[in-house]
Design a protein that fits this description.
Mean pLDDT: 92
Radius of gyration: 17 Å
Low-confidence stretches: none
Length: 190
């Protein structure tokens, strides 16, 4: 717990999960309100996000195997792409049909980064401390899922639907900073 890199890993999980929680908890009502789509279409979009996330994980496994030394940069690139896609969803630039596809593609971008994310954490973990580090780092998931509705639920209550997506994209960009911070601290301790 005294190693800064472990806290950078924790921060990465917390921040990236805040965004995931926004998509899982609020994308259906956001899509309904912003674009007037039916509950079924909005739910299908969330399903597509999750399925493309799984496909992205599969692709990401090959990416992680090909570029294991660049895991932090792969994660940062994927999270940056996901943040841009989510911001595009907030803009409404692509209309309701395009926004649905762009949100689904966001799941793919996040998924591709998944295997490299796990490699990044593994590289940052000191020998003999795997269980303790993983326990602490992965608790960032729970904290992120707990904090996200507190902030973004308030946004939703105010009717700030685009701001909810834009806020989630901004938090995703902070997770990019955290991933790059993990990489820098892992390299300096090696």
């Amino acid at each position: 717990m005294r190693l800064p890199v472990v806290w950078w890993c924790f921060a990465f999980f917390l921040l990236s999960t805040v965004t995931l929680a926004v998509v899982q908890n609020f994308s259906v009502p956001i899509l309904k309100e912003l674009h007037g789509v039916s509950l079924e279409v909005a739910s299908l979009t969330l399903t597509a996000y999750m399925l493309l996330g799984a496909v992205g994980m599969l692709v990401g496994g090959f990416v992680a195997a090909r570029f294991p030394a660049l895991s932090d940069r792969v994660v940062a690139s994927c999270m940056c792409a996901a943040a841009v896609l989510m911001a595009l969803c907030a803009s409404g630039l692509f209309g309701h049909v395009g926004t649905l596809w762009v949100l689904a593609a966001t799941g793919f971008a996040v998924g591709v980064g998944g295997p490299s994310r796990d490699l990044m954490i593994k590289k940052a973990t000191p020998k003999g401390a795997t269980g303790r580090v993983y326990g602490l780092v992965y608790s960032g998931l729970d904290v992120g899922f707990a904090l996200s509705p507190l902030l973004f639920g308030w946004f939703m209550d105010k009717g700030w639907y685009s701001a909810t997506l834009l806020g989630a994209a901004t938090v995703m960009l902070f997770s990019v900073v955290a991933a790059l911070g993990v990489g820098r601290r892992t390299e300096s301790s090696a």
